[in-house]
């Protein structure tokens, strides 16, 4: 039997993740049946689950990929920039449905909560490091503890995601983000 190259395996995995992201975004976790996953990826269940243990493993891989992508933007430009990008290019954020599903499962599924907390640490660490650098440079308020700033920004992000996902991304959200950014800056 011929050996499959690492490039081929990586391309197949990427194909599966891309299709699964669209499927989860359109149908939610419960509605993303194996049959629908097969249709959107163009692959058999055997091919899909050769790369992922099960549907939950596939969903976690997507969520982890999205958190890694967000952490990269946060590390270089901040969490508010992630939110600005969401407003400017909503078509690039088909993971919004994934984020809503994560929130639902965190509330209802203790096994998922344990698994996700291990994977989401990277985004929290990137946010903390960015805020620490900004505080050291004198750009952020020093009268508010960093963990409170993180909670505040996470709350705004969750609200923005819910707002966009419900189709209510109004024109004033950019101005709201200006206000959020101003509220965490150091006042001279």
UniProtKB/TrEMBL annotation:
Boundaries of every HTH tetR-type domain copy: 10-70
DNA-binding region: 33-52
Assembly description: Homodimer.
GO molecular function, one term: DNA-binding transcription factor activity
Database matches in SUPFAM superfamilies: Homeodomain-like (SSF46689), Tetracyclin repressor-like, C-terminal domain (SSF48498)
Name of the protein in its database record: TetR family transcriptional regulator
Top-level division of the source organism's lineage: Bacteria
Transcription regulation among keywords: yes
InterPro entries, A to Z: DNA-bd_HTH_TetR-type_CS, Homeodomain-like_sf, HTH-type_TetR-like_transc_reg, HTH_TetR, Tet_transcr_reg_TetR-rel_C_sf
UniProt organism field: Rhodococcus opacus RKJ300 = JCM 13270
Keywords: DNA-binding, Repressor, Transcription, Transcription regulation
PANTHER family per UniProt: HTH-TYPE TRANSCRIPTIONAL REGULATOR RUTR, HTH-TYPE TRANSCRIPTIONAL REPRESSOR RV1474C
